[in-house]
Amino acid sequence: MIDLIGFAISWLTLFGIYAILSLTLNLESGTAGITNFGKVVFYGVGAYVAATITTYMTLILNGVDVGETPPYDVRGIVLLGELGSRNPLLNVGLLVLSVVVAFAAAGALGYILSYPIIRVGPAFVGFTLLSFGELLRVFLQHYEPVGGNKGLMAIPTPFGWVADSRLREVAYLGLVMGMLAVTYIVTYRLVNSPLGRTLRAVRDDEIAALCLGKHVPRIKATTLFIGSGFAGVAGVLLAYYLTSVNPNMFVPAVTFNVWAMIILGGFGNLKGSLIGAAVVTFVDRALTFVTPQLGVTLISPDYLRWVIVGLLIVVVLMVSPRGILPEEPIKTPALDIVSDELGGESK
Amino acid sequence: MSSVLEVEGVAKYFGGVRALDGVSLKVPEKGLVGLIGPNGSGKTTLFNVVTGFYVPDKGEILFRESRDLVRIDGLNPNEVFRRGIVRTFQIPRLFNSLTVLENLLVTPLGQRGESPARALFRSSWSKQEMELARKAVELLKMFGMLHYAHSKVSELSVAHIKMLETIRGLMTPAKLYLLDEPAAGVDYSMARKLFTYVKRLRDELGLTFFIIEHRLEILMEFVDYVYVLHNGKLLSEGKPQEVVSDPKVVEAYIGA
Questions:
Q1: Of A195, A205, A337, the CB nearest to B133
Q2: What's the pTM value of the predicted model, to 2 decimals?
Q3: Is residue A346 part of a domain?
């Protein structure tokens, strides 16, 4: 029998993590027009920050000498498994610390990587970020303190102390949904504000925006700071969800998976990004759940996933070229004033 | 009368092309000054040099800030704008996916809600936003465009787009407005209307306008001084009647 509740929990958790990425990518690329082909960089930085902080700190605070027993070592992994469920306060504390550090680190990296290159042109930003992601991945493959190619495993989770596994999953889903809610509120408010208006103006015509005194490079880099910071938080959530990280999880395909979500959902529409993330993660989860049970082993779900997502994009764009939901006007109090005037005029 | 903009011996070369070759001119405060000349005479290049798109190869550009004339050549376009010079473009550069209202609201500097931290809290910027909206409504009413407030720019006619670009500049407290062919592609009555508004703004608010225009029949009726450029050099200057009857100008336009 298919475990439907288990399926729903795993789908929604993955949806929450990816929706954080798609919402912020939509803010960066849909609203501000920055071609961010390196979303995975900041996602990966967040995941590694969480993994490194949590494994090392758990060992150190329990009096283990990490010089002798590092977390990537077999003994370290076994120890982490034992220590991970002992102290709720430590687990939750490390979550908070990871979220803060990941946001700051990924955000700062987004700002630093983009600021010098933004003046050159949008395509260059895209390729700088894309290639930096690959550089970072290769570096991590060879950097032993974070486990090299194997990565880090047995990461103690925030709810590791909860005994019941279903309860643990639900609690974690709650955490992910909470983070998603925060991301949605922040992106929604940013888009529907004078800042959101300026971002769209910059997207439409950078030179005209410059002529109106807008500091275009700083505006774009700040947007990338915010978007990348949240991508870092999504990375933290992923690391705890999978309880392991390794460099090969953070390939460029992850970035384009998120791009697929915002193209499907609608460029510049935040609700569309939620729908896009839900659809793509559903396809992903459904395939992983269903294919083994149907006894289909000839085709790996990995390949099927790309075919289905590609097909979905083609079909949706044929029916509705701007995605499932098109961009909406910016909602600020100014709309009411104009509506009052227009109403008054017609009377 | 004291001048708000002074261009002194400005030259701009593109390879062997002398787009501007030692141009000197002054725009007086509260002036309505025209800039004419045949195609390729360097009018738009002069605007580009003044607004910071190009750095002049020679010469100085001075702009009046409070009392003193300050050099502004070499500044970036956004810095020039901050000092109080707004321009429009020959081919209008509006924000096409934004509505007419949003195009106006996006213009003013120093909006609280443009900072990411404040943007999150509506109460910190909504008062300013409403003031700006009232100003936008006033301008749209004045130019008879209020019922287009929620239309996207891509849905407007050329005349309205031209008009909107001029109105957009008025959302800011600039001192000097450089208009690059505001009447091009606009029918006669609409173009006259536009110039009538511009003149009214000059008379009522004391703004200064420097206008490139090929539609001489309209321009000459409204401006009080005209400069003529030809091959990057100043060919003639004076009151509209004087310039129109200058044989050099007639020759440059008709060709001999």
A1: A337
A2: 0.86
A3: no
